[in-house]
Amino acid sequence: MIESMRFVHDTLPQRVCFGSGEAAANLRREITGLGASRVMLIGSKSGLRAADEEITAGLPVALRYDEVVMHVPVEVAERARAAAAEHDVDALVSVGGGSTTGLAKAIALTAGLPIVAVPTTYSGSEATPVWGLTEGARKTTGVDLRVLPKAIVYDAALTTSLPVELSVASGLNALAHCVDAMWGPSADPINAALAAEGIRSLAAGLPQVAAAPEGLDGREHTLYAAYLSAAAFASAGSGLHHKICHVLGGAYNLPHAQTHATVLPYVLAFNGPAAPDAERRIAAAFGAATALDGLLALKRQLDAPRALRDYGLAQDAIAAAADAILPSVPPSNPRPVTAADLRTLLRAAWSGADPATVF
Ligand code: NAD
């Protein structure tokens, strides 16, 4: 909670280059600045095709790599690391969503190579030092400054091809970073300021993206917010919301962004009344009477994901999921959390019940 004005805040060393239509020029400048001469260009097949020629012309590309898999399976990471070593690359450029950035991070983690990230979704992975790998059904994450991209090249024009449904889910994933940053274990007033501006910009940008997916204005607001959300979240650490989604994504293989979009209002309904400062800041950022009113109005406007049962969670998995989540709940959560609370929250999120009536 953000009540004390005593805090220690780490600001991450990273350059942010923002400009629609400027990815090629910004990328060239950043790679030149790093003194790199053998770049490994990483992107999913669809991502690379969309951006490839346009933004990578003039780069010293030694290897194009497109085996990108969500949640970075260890064997996929091992193959990519071997390819990087075999081609003697000296810098990594990732063009794509969180999965692509995640693969670049997995290589950087062991090879110590610098990353320049060109994000094409709103996942925000590019602005965090968090890496993730999966082995079987088990996802491991860690924090290491070696995986923090040296530079981010944001170009909203590269995101216009992201389908509206995915854009909405991904944008709400960014919103979840903002909300959780308000009460994460290391929450502080700087994170809260970044997060509030992120919420304001998402609330302005996402409806425009849904209404005019090709338009740059909404895309720029949303991409800018994606950065703010991740910077705030990286500093504040995972709060209750991310602990819940981490278990749901890892153990039940639910889709990342949609799971965040569905669960967030229930966590806000649970925590909001016990976190008056966060509640006030979030409500103000939405321009709404309460934080939950603002979030629900935005979700209605966007026709956003509503129920976990739509994404493959079985109802009889809820009790075990609650038990798996409980030990990871941060002790600093604004209110105590019991297994029964988690079951109530998950049952409501599973069925899509009105979050305002659950707690
Ligand atoms: P993603 O990267 O898997 O992309 C989703 C889909 O969208 C893919 O099929 C991709 O090819 C496609 N796509 C991406 N950009 C596109 C574009 N501009 N146009 C058309 N299609 C496009 O999904 P994501 O939600 O961006 O990232 C999810 C992953 O990132 C998860 O593994 C999650 O754990 C990780 N993540 C990590 C952090 C972190 O800090 N380490 C933060 C957020 C997310």
Descriptive report:
The longest helix has 23 residues, at 189-211. This protein starts with 14 loop residues before the first strand and ends in an 8-residue tail after the last helix. The chain has 13 helices and eight strands. It has helices at 23-34, 45-56, 74-86, 98-111, 164-181, 189-211, 216-236, 240-252, 256-271, 276-286, 291-302, 318-325, 339-351, and strands at 15-18, 39-42, 61-65, 91-96, 115-119, 130-135, 138-143, 151-154. The strands form two sheets. Strands 1-8-5-4-2-3 form a six-stranded parallel beta sheet, with helices on both faces. A two-stranded antiparallel sheet has the order 6-7. The chain has 359 residues and is α/β, with parallel strands linked by helices. It is globular, with a radius of gyration of 20 Å. Helix 5 (164-181) runs antiparallel to helix 6, helix 5 (164-181) runs parallel beside helix 9 and helix 6 packs parallel to helix 10. Residues 44, 46-47, 50, 70-71, 96-100, 102, 120-121, 123-125, 128, 130, 132, 158-159, 161-162, 166, 170, 256-257 line the site of nicotinamide-adenine-dinucleotide.
